[in-house]
Amino acid sequence: MCSSDLFGTIFLMIARRALASLRTRVPNAVVRPLVATASVRHQSGGTDVDAFTESLKSQLAKAVLQELTPEKLKAHFDLSSTSMHMTPEDDIVAQVNAMSLEAEEIFYNSSPAVLYQEALQEKGSAIVSSGALAVSSHAKTGRSPLDKRIVDEPSSTKDVWWGKVNIPLSGSSFMTNRERALDYLNTREKLYVIDGFVGWDPEFRLPVRVIASRAYHALFMQNMLVPPKKSELAEFSNPSKPPFVIYNSGAFPCNRQTVGMTSSTSVSVSFDRSEMVILGTQYAGEMKKGAFTLMNYYMPLQPNRDLPPAERNLPLHASANIGEGDDVSIFFGLSGTGKTTLSADPKRDLIGDDEHVWTTKGVFNMEGGCYAKCVGLTRDKEPEIYDAIRFGAVLENVVYDDSTREVDFDDTSVTENTRLAYPLQFIPNARIPAVVDHHPKNVILLTCDAFGVLPPVSKLTNAQVMYHFISGYTAKVAGTEMGVTEPQATFSPCFGGPFLVHHPFVYAELLAAKLEKHQADAWLINTGWVGGEYGTGDRCSLKYTRAIIDAIHDGSLGKLPDDQWEAMPIFGLLVPKGDVNGVPKDVLTPKLAWAKNGMDAKAFDATAGKLADLFNNNFKEYADRCTKDVLAAAPK
Fold this sequence. Notes:
Shape: globular
Largest sheet: 9 strands, mixed
Number of strands: 31
Distance between the termini: 85 Å
Radius of gyration: 26 Å
């Protein structure tokens, strides 16, 4: 027998052994499908296990009978591989392998009731009095931005904004982490798989598959991803566009000795492999923001990277809502600035609370749910969000009474970053599908100014909106990141620096082009401190902020004539000369607010000068790519 025949015989034996192995293993692993309900949130096509098994056997038998080359056989039946990028004939085989049949049970797109039952077996989980599921993310209660890595790959390296936000990782280190994550998943008796979309627009949405060892993570992502209809499940088996896979092995640490690792936590992304690996953190927000990072990479390149800026997609770290007159408002802002709170307006339909895309057609929400901060939450302050705390919602790291299961939203003994994840449909006035064919009329930049210098509202010129968008000034609010216990002044370009993949100028250029084309008004809203800096002033009343937003939406603020605005010193921001919708002038004018609180003008000017220096020093990084008009909008 010649060597080629012997080689073929050996691989044919491997194929037959693989077939026999899978015939034995598939029936032993119970694949629990989703039980379809009438709710739009949980529609799916439950896969019959027997039919699934027979289909798998049939495809394997067909592959064995075909006269495949040794190379094809090796690729088809390499049981050590978990790649989802195989040929159409073996796509099901690949997916089963990727889900790891070592698990006794695989829960696929399971209902909230099933995931509740599973999650209650996890330490720190309980059903609270409202019916929501309270869970613990254990040691990590916020994102770990210093542990995020992007694989440096030829296809994307020229597009990525490398530096402190996007730290490069070698392909070999990524594969080491990936293997470690899969090894951990293979030790679990149960695995939880969720298929869903990032984005409501069928043209631009991204299919994502989450494979996790915790039921809480599955329910969280079932809430946050857009749920597929039964007819759409085939898209997750499309070999030409396989889903982006998130391997969540967060309960297991990475190896600190792996090149590129600086702690036991790693959140790494490979665009070439369409994969994300999580190790060493069980904080569910890493999955949500990981999906957002993917969209921040892909969207500016679509529909075609060669189109002019106004014709390409702009990903937004922003909430959005729409009024009866189809007037869309966009609220930019980092965590803690009020995106979720201010977009949940009973007089307007909610499109989404955190992540959107502005296309040539209009705006669509990236997410299927909302992720709200719930420290200090009350029904009086935020009724729509409070009433969303019910069966199907996930409460992260909250404190509750063991006997009554009543949640104490003022108790921050575990973390300041207590969170609530719930499906979009839990908001009574949510727009579903969360996609509108209307362009924004108001673009609102939200900031949480810890210095108490910026006014509660100012009207921005075109140059100012570009300057403040690129600057992205706010304060890191306590609890949103590990180690942050009180507000710290920071600058986050495009109000989403930790999640940007391209250079900030790419997003700024897209925003400028769209603002010019659609003639939207732009506003800077300070939801932070007034009457003094942190420690002496007070956080701006939510009642006042809502009144200002109402004045923007009803058009009364925008209709003020030019002589009813005055430029504040140093920053040159236009501030209303009088009261606005019940908000007094001594709140709207920062220097008067300081005086009302017993602080003199010199103290205000000194603090404003300090903040101006921070703005100017920060902007040096972007100045070489900005126009003279934008540079002139800087504080003096």
